[in-house]
Amino acid sequence: MLLNLCLLLTCTFLLSLTYRDWPVRRHWPDHALRLLLSAGTAAVLLHYAVEVGPYKIDLRYVPIALVTLRYGFGAGALVALPTVVWRLLESQLGGLVALVNTLTVLGASSLLRPTLDLAHANLRDLWKLPLPYLGVGLPLLFLPESRALGLVVYPGMLALHSVATVLVLGVLQARLRLLRLANDLRQQVMTDDLTGLGNRRRFDETLARLEVGDHLVLLDVDDFRQLTDTHGPEAGERALRYIGQVLHDAAPGASFRLGHEAFALLLSLPEPEARAVVARVQAQLADPGSAAPWACLTLSAGLASRLLREQPAQLVHRADEALYVAKTNGGNRLVTLDDLPRRAVPAPVPDLRPRYSLWQAQRTTVELLAQRRPLRDQDWQELLQLAVTTIGGVGCGSLNIREGVQFRICAAVGYAHELVGTPLPEASQLRWYGQGLDAWRQGVPRVLRPAEIERVWAEADAELASGPRQAFADLGQRTALRASLCLPVVVGGEVVAHLNLESTESEGVFSAGAIQDAQVFAQQIAALLQLQERWRELEQLARLHGDLNLSAGEQEIADHLARAAHDLLRTSSALLMRYDPAQDALVAAAQTGTQRAAPPRLARGEGLSWQALDSGRVIRAARLQEAPGAYLHPQGDTADQALMVVPMLSHDRQPLGVLCLLRAPWRPFHATEEALAAMLASVGTRVMERSAHLSDLRATLDAALNMLGVALEARDLETQGHTQRVRDLAARMGEALNLPDDQRLALRHGATLHDIGKLSVPDTILLKPGRLTPEERLIMEQHAPLGAELVARIPFLHPQAHEVVRHHHERWDGAGYPDRLGGEQIPLLARIFALCDVYDALTSVRPYKGAMSHEEAMTIILQGAGSQFDPQLTALFRRVVPDSETPSEGRHAVPAA
Question: How many CB atoms lie within 10 A of CB 703?
Answer without folding.
Answer: 10
